[in-house]
Design a protein that fits this description.
Elements: H1 5-22, E1 28-29, H2 35-47, H3 50-60, H4 65-73, E2 77-78, E3 90-91, E4 98-100, E5 105-106, E6 111-112, E7 119-120, E8 123-125, E9 130-131, E10 136-137, E11 142-143, E12 148-149, E13 154-155, E14 159-161, E15 166-171, E16 174-179, E17 190-191, H5 211-216, H6 228-262, H7 278-312
Parallel strand pairs: 2-4, 3-6, 4-8, 5-9, 6-10, 8-11, 9-12, 10-13, 11-14, 12-15
Antiparallel strand pairs: 1-7, 14-17, 15-16
Helix pairs in contact: 1-2, 6-7
Length: 313
Amino acid sequence: AREFAAPLVYMAVAILIKWCIIGKFQEGPVDAASNWQLSRHWLSATLFSRENMQCVADIVGRHYELVSVLYRLLGAKVGKRVFWPGQLPITTGQFDLLEIGDDVVFGSRSAIFNRSAESLERIRLCAGCNVADNCVVLPGCTVGKNAVLGSNSVGPGGRFLPEGSTWFGARGCEPVMLEKGIEGSFDGAMYNKDAPQESLTLEGDESTIRPFGKAVYLREAPYFVFPLPLMILCSALVKTLAILVHTTPLLFGLHGAAAILYGLHFADRDYEGMNYHLFTIYITFLAVSTLVHILRLGVWLFIELTAKWAIVG
């Protein structure tokens, strides 16, 4: 229950706190003189840390629609067929200022910051764009339709990465442009005020649909793909199985030590008449739990190797 139900209950209560106490965040300057305003930002960042969000994603399916639902419940505008990463991005908690279009693809371990020391600014990830691994997206950044922010890159604050462009790394806090995209007259990131409105769309079309969205959501893959509800159910079952596997040394240690010291059958055990020193009980429990732990590792290794050769080949 602690590993499975607790994260869901925690997030449900946190969402209530978000809408009943914290409220909606608006673009504009940060009121650093107001303790209440600073507390709102701190509370939101703490309640919705990556660790807390990740615990929920691990249960409902890391890459799928229920993660989008979670972000929408927190105030973000999230489109369809979004591919969420194995490790959700770090955020500053101002989800009301986050817009994610259809068919957006995320890489793991990135950071999306809507807040600086001075202001709150909206971040817009337009339809079909890709924010790859280990990226940092700064306040006010807009990634255009089908644009790619490559691994270890910086999405510059207040800038627009044009439609279809490709960026990588950072030089002087600016990403390096590898491909100009359709706005070929610009040699770097544009300011948001210069961005063409047709490139700021959050609605996808045929050009934005990725293989993930086509296979999982549109059911158009040339091979069989499990239906989305079954994938989510499998994620929950795998999480439950992992919890059970991790608790086996403790459970078997307790019952095994009791069987050795007091007898195998529950009805024959005389807990009051048979007194053991605490050290004896501890050593017996430690020995049994260690043995079970070693056996568990062996079984797990056998499953991994069997799956490798039976499935992967």
